[in-house]
Write the structure tokens for this entry.
Amino acid sequence: MAASAPLPSDDAQQPRLGLRERKKLKTRVAIREATYRLITDQGYEATTVEQIAAAAEVSPSTVFRYFPTKEDIVLTDEFDPVMEAAIRARPADEPPLESVRAVLRQAVEAILADQPEELLQRSKLMLEIPAVRARMTETMTETSLLLSRAVADRTGRDEGDLEVRVFTASVMAALREVTIYWAEHDQKENLAVLVDRALDSLEGGLSL
């Protein structure tokens, strides 16, 4: 999922980043923020990596070291490892889909509260720019692998089991469609409610 803010949790449970990790995170955030500013001013296609590097006060090679493609700057965030840890921290007897639902609702609410403009712009780019949408599908596949690992550990299954893979792939596909649907409808609906609706559909066995 597209997200950049950490889930709200007890400070004692938050991992402490070392100096090197904090510097890396600061650089990533600076590059991403510069990218969004430039896209707002001149559009996605007109924005180059060289311009992004200059605005973020880093070299183009640094940009590529953190983000292999321009699409990755828009889509990549720090949410995946946080999501995996948050799912593992849920009650052991909680059904996997309910664990995922709780974590995603927290994430959506946190991002909408802390970084609403970035989320709005990101969803528009997913809708309007084919390359961004295509890369989104690829990055969601990578997120699905992390989710599979967490779900497999919680359920005592192997992460390569077909049922685990179908479960996680279904969740990620639902999130992709929620994001696109939200953008198509001018982002007027409550995104957290849409996520709940999508997961309700999965929980109900995809009946219509």
